[in-house]
Amino acid sequence: MRDFEITRGRPYPMGPSITEGGVNLAVAVKPGRALVLCIYSLKDGRRLHRIPLGEELRTGDVFALHISGLDFSKVSYSFYDGAKVFCDPYSTALAGCEKWGIRKERSLFPKKDDYDWGNEKKPSIPLEKCIQYTIHVRGFTRHTSSNVKYRGCFEGIMEKISYLKDLGINQIELMPAYDFNEIIRRPQPVRSGVRLPEDSEEATALQEVLKQEKKALRRIGTNYWGYTDEAYYFSPKAAYSGTGNASRSMKDLVKALHENGIELIMQFYFPEKTLPQLIVDCIRYWVLEYRIDGACIMGTDIPEGLILTDPLLADTKIYLRSLEALPEGHRRNTALVQDGFMYDMRRYLKSDEDMLRSFVTHQLDNPEKHGVINFITNYYGFTLADLVSYDRKHNEDNGEENRDGTDYNFSWNCGVEGKSRRKYIRLLRRRQVFNALSFLFMSAGMPKLMAGDEFGNSQNGNNNAYCQDNAVTWLDWRDIDKNRELFDFVKSFIKYRTGSSLLCNSRPRSLSDRNAVGYPEVSYHGDQAWYPHFESYSRSLGCMYTCRGEFLFAAYNMYWIEEKFALPKLPKGKKWSVVMKTSEGFFEKGEIMADQENLYVSGRTVVLLEGVDVEEDDEDS
Length: 621
Hints:
By secondary structure, this protein is an alpha+beta fold. It is 22% helix and 25% strand. The strands form seven sheets. It has an eight-stranded parallel barrel with strand order 12-13-18-19-20-21-22-23.
């Protein structure tokens, strides 16, 4: 006996939606399948109602029903299609998933939104001025050293906003923060054979084996990253809320970030054959409901054309792994995420042959119709500290006998595998890290930094830590004090980049004198000015950048020996001043060079010069 009413509803929009008299549900089923609605008590989880839905509620393969007269705050729901029980794919909130590692998911009915956004306003930062910082919500603050109240939660990120601002970050990217299944399960074994008498010793022994085997196989690991084949894309992850209300926690985070001039980008992974409609609906929902600034969309069947031409998403940053369907005259808030920069820069960093042309290509890459996102490290592969500490992956703790993860890391351990106490090795590794960051921040595209790389985060050589929910992946914030020079270097470089019109430019870099100032915007030099060496054996290059009277010269030497660079002559009234060496870091005040014609750079070092104005007396001297 039920005291609520179910009538025909609207087949669109999909999922749950509040109406004047109750809640509308619209859910798609496989062709020919029937559907049963199950309603449960939130208090004790009991199933209260099991209601087969009639064909009069079906439109195509969508069942649409309107429920009225039910106290929605006290119940949850799921569906059964004759093959399995499942939650509403468009669920906006889940019950039974509030604690990490516990999954008894059921869909919650939506509540009326009374969230006060106040005077919140999106920062709307141009792509070329963005400094992106990728975060795993749980790993960012789960470690006790984070010193936050809500460890591993959205609120924990809020408590670190002052840190992000101090570092110079103006855009964070969250690895999957919608509700995914973090428990990796193995299918139960199927056994066949003779039927044994129930009271026999063999049957008793077999039952005990099956019991133990079932217990052992119930759960085999953790999907820490969140890139799963099944997820609830419209629901913020309940286990990431420190207060028990994931929707409010997410809105609080977005609001706090926007108030501090920081954008939020959400990562979404859609497996093969995900319906294009669901993908577009998902991005629209997060933009409208949570006011996110953009989405990084991953998967194999992404409807790029639908997303990039959606007028509702015209002001939304869209980051994609491919841009085959880029519309004509497209806006510059679309960016391409690709691995080419990462692998080529790593190869140049470790002094591989014939890498200078690739290096230059990536440094110039800044298309007119879309942006590019550059990174040296990502969640897959080595951290920055491990990139210079390990030649080989060390994924033994993943339980797959070190067979998982890529074998092509393009890394160099600087002579010793893993940690080392040798001063020479430690100094070389630090300089290599500084070199890698110089490649990143001097390139034209948007730089992307993995959380923790700015203070030497290590995963002990694990390059595929998808299942490591522990100290391997949790950031240890004590490393900031241990690697203060690195942290200060990253902070200084971000400040330098964002303050330079030469490095933050929306226009593609040109090899010509486009501004008619007597110098090309970008030029290359070797041991003679204006004569670079791009032979396969060459590993050093001088790059000069000019714009509106500003001059920068970057000397990249990935040889293991000292190299000479000839310096281009500056206009009258300017001299070259050293502002940074990766062997030392940024200088508090630039040092004007005594020799204005030649620069000698130590092996595996990057030096940055700036053309500065000088008094007439100084120029004569």
